[in-house]
Amino acid sequence: MIALEHVSKRYGGVAAVDDVSLTIPTGEVFGIVGQSGAGKSTLARIVNLLERPDSGTVTVDDVELTSLRESDLRAARRRIGMVFQRFNLLNSRSVRGNVELALELDGTSRQDRRARAQEMLDLVGLGHRADASVHELSGGQQQRVGIARALAARPSVLLSDEATSALDPETTTSILELYRRINRELGLTVLLITHEMDVVKSTCDSAALIEAGKVVEQGRLVDVIKTPGSRLTGQLFPLGPIPEGVPADATVIDITFAGGNADRPVIARLARDHGVDVSILGAAVERIAGTQAGRTRLEVPGEVAASVIADLRGQGLLVEVLQGVAA
């Protein structure tokens, strides 16, 4: 488990991270998402204490890193593998040589280094390119080498800082699938730092939204989706503003679906049971954390809106009123 308690970091008069408390359960894929400048990368570097916080504590696997001496901290950092956005590979070394580097610095024997590097390259699908030069590889392949290198020292946590942002969509998908497989097969906790909500949708079990150095929302995605007013849900399923031309006396509602109610014929049932025309103003459906989920925006005639909303909520659906009755 990773636990940050009241962590802050300032640069001059700017609070890059501002009193952040965060718990990341063991074995999860956890996303920290936010726009550029929100404090994500600083928070990532605080997790492995590449940046020491001005205040607060950082605990990884029951070890409080912020209390360790530098020599003990170096040893503790080996339990946290780091994957970088720009790969940070050495052109002077082969693919295998890059993966062996961390083990070489640890004093691992040459034979053991070679065997472990080959094992990790096989895991990421590059065992056949072990002797290749780094410059011969595509961007996605270089990222896989970076992941293999991060895994070489057998960490319990894999930390990825915007590691897919420079890749094309198809390569990004393959790298995210690799992270999920690593999480599943090796039992690692994977922490993804990203500004891309699609990364959270496709890969994460839980997430935290950070803005101006503060975590404004966090939780398991299956729970967040069901939370009224959730900012994360709004970004997972963006429906935009109410379209122009919607009558002022109409009621506009957002319905959030998750799990077993995602495939119900809700709209057809409303039209049948209430004898009204229901207009769909927007919809978004995704598979999130293994669960089919989505939001639908409806325009409902004002005279029946109260009964329609009561009906939907009686079915266990999350209904938020944007305009009209109870707005």
TrEMBL record:
Keyword ATP-binding belongs to the record:
yes
Q: Which UniProt keywords apply?
A: Amino-acid transport, ATP-binding, Cell membrane, Membrane, Nucleotide-binding, Translocase, Transport
One Pfam family cited in the UniProt record for this chain: NIL
* Protein name, entry field: ATP-binding cassette domain-containing protein
Q: What PANTHER family does its record include?
A: AMINO ACID IMPORT ATP-BINDING PROTEIN (PTHR43166), METHIONINE IMPORT ATP-BINDING PROTEIN METN (PTHR43166:SF30)
Task: Look up the domain of life of the source.
Answer: Bacteria
Query: What Gene3D superfamilies does this protein's entry cite?
Result: 3.30.70.260, P-loop containing nucleotide triphosphate hydrolases
GO MF terms here are:
ATP binding
| Species of origin | Microbacterium dauci
According to the entry, every stretch annotated as the ABC transporter domain falls at 2-237
InterPro entries attached to this UniProt entry: AAA+_ATPase, ABC_transporter-like_ATP-bd, ABC_transporter-like_CS, ACT-like_dom_sf, MetN_ABC, MetN_ABC_transporter-like, NIL_domain, P-loop_NTPase
UniProt xrefs under PROSITE patterns: ABC_TRANSPORTER_1, ABC_TRANSPORTER_2
| CDD domains to which the protein is assigned, alphabetical | ABC_MetN_methionine_transporter
* Annotated transmembrane regions: none
SMART domains annotated for this entry? Answer: AAA (SM00382), NIL (SM00930)
> Does Cell membrane show up as a keyword for this record?
yes
